[in-house]
Amino acid sequence: MFTLVFFVSSLTAASASAGSNNEIKWKNEKNQWDKEKIGWEKELKQWQTEKLKWESEKTKWENEKKEWDKKDKNCNEYKAWLNNYNTWLNKYSSWETKYEVWVVSYNSWIVEYEVWVVSYNSWVSSN
Questions:
Q1: Distance between CA 32 and CA 89 in Å, rounded?
Q2: Band of residue 2 on the pLDDT scale cut at 50, 70, 90
Q3: Residue 70, Cβ neighbours under 10 Å: how many?
Q4: Which residues of 14-33 are buried (b: 16+ CB within 10 A; e: fewer)?
Q5: Are 57 and 92 in contact (CB under 8 A)?
Q6: Contact 95, 50 (CB under 8 A)
Q7: Are 96 and 54 in contact (CB under 8 A)?
Q8: Its domain of life (predicted)?
């Protein structure tokens, strides 16, 4: 009888310990996901700020282009401006590509995060 009581109480203690370890595991994971989320959100703000800057410059260049389109395109001043415009446009395209790649990574992370949140919420509701 003592053996059976000892076995049952050991099982209960092991189960409680496993539950406690599981809770620690989930809390650690949640902390890690929360840190990652903060990092991604900070990066997102930086990208959005940069995007506004680039879009503002793009508008400025496009407005200048409209003015140049009304003028003589054979003059050296226009050719120099056009060269600068094309150089800027290449830089903008390069930045835009980097931004789009980052957005894909960000969206992929968001999906992973949302899947994890579903698992976490399921665990929380079962405890």
A1: 39
A2: very low
A3: 7
A4: eeeeeeeeeeeeeeeeeeeb
A5: yes
A6: yes
A7: yes
A8: Archaea
Residue found by looking up tokens 């009888």 in the block? 1
Q: At what angle do helices 2-69 and 76-126 cross, to 10 degrees?
A: 160
Which two tokens mark 39?
A: 């990092």
Label residue 11 by pLDDT band (50, 70, 90): very low
pLDDT at 106 over 90: yes
Listed in sequence order, the residues at least 6 apart from 39 whose beta carbon sits closer than 8 Å to its beta carbon are none
The domain segmentation of the chain, as residue ranges, is 72-121
CA nearest to 110, candidates 37, 30, 31: 37
pTM, rounded to two decimals = 0.72
Answer for the pair 85, 65: CB distance below 8 angstroms, yes or no.
Answer: yes
Residue indicated by tokens 């150089």: 87
